[in-house]
Amino acid sequence: MAFKVTQSDIQAAHEKIQPFIHRTPVLTCQSINEMVGAELFFKCENFQKIGAFKARGGINAVLSLPEEARSKGVVTHSSGNHAQAIALAAKMAGVPAYIVMPKTAPEVKKKAVAGYGAQITLCEPTQQSREENSARIQEETGATFISPYNDYAVITGQATCAKELIEDQPDLDIIIAPVGGGGLLAGSALSALYYNPEMTVYAGEPEGAKDTYLSMEAGTITKVEKPSSIADGLLASMGDKNFEIIKELVKDIFLVSDEEIVAAMRIIWERMKIIIEPSCAVPFAAILKNKDVFAGKKVGVILTGGNVDLAKLPF
To answer: Its Gene Ontology molecular function terms (predicted)?
Structure first.
């Protein structure tokens, strides 16, 4: 099957965003390997600009806009990491950024977005309120809407993360990422297809926001009415552009509970001495819960971000 995002698109995006992102390290931990009975290679996007992989897709999307459109600015809705990515990209491009954020978004993320000079509009914590506010701002300003995940330029930018991981660790058997809206998972699956087609792709998803799991079972996008999880970055509904890639290329979705997410997060803090946010711990929680699937394998794990509200730690 031919996909809209090609290998040369990913290559071009990587070259375009390289001056503006970090090539994040791949870390290992012997005690964690012994715990799970596999060799895990953690791609540490918690060390990325803005503290999350979202910088890749956001910067690629803004830099890919034609100059005339870009000059009118960009608008998006996001609970945090994509908001920061678009705010940073707009600042780099010297154009306005209008960000719609739910009132319930973590304070640390609101402050970071404001710090990049973006104009924040707070909304009710529902998809409808996010979309209505974004549409209104778009109409008033002429700014271009950039979806947090359901956008080919965003997917292509996110794909550069797995591309780097595969280049640094070419003998991986498996790659696993978390899934919310699906931009990172779709991008990771495409990089696996193009750069190491022997590799199996999995995802971890919170039980309280399992729309991708249900969609894979049904073969069509199936929404969860009121998603809820400690993994606040994974509450978005699956995008159709992402799902057409994911349903073809991802082997399985593993569900994990909030308790399992917190336990996995704590192990990484304690054993690896790095800060990760709950959404980021989801794939590792999936490995801990399904050790038989990963036993004896070399597994690339994408650690998506480290933007934690330190006043509200779950342990």
So the answer is: ATP binding; L-serine ammonia-lyase activity; magnesium ion binding; pyridoxal phosphate binding; serine racemase activity; threonine racemase activity
DSSP state of 126: S
Where is 172: in which H helix or E strand? Answer: none
pLDDT in tens, 95-147: 999 999 999 888 888 999 999 999 999 999 888 899 999 999 999 999 999 99
Element housing 175 (H / E): strand 174-178
- Inter-residue contact 180 to 279 (CB < 8 Å): yes
User: Where is average pLDDT lowest: 31-35, 60-64, 79-83, 301-305?
Assistant: 79-83
Q: Compute CA distances 161 → 85, 177, 273, 297, whole Å.
A: 15, 11, 22, 21
Length of the chain as a residue count: 315
pTM comes to 0.94
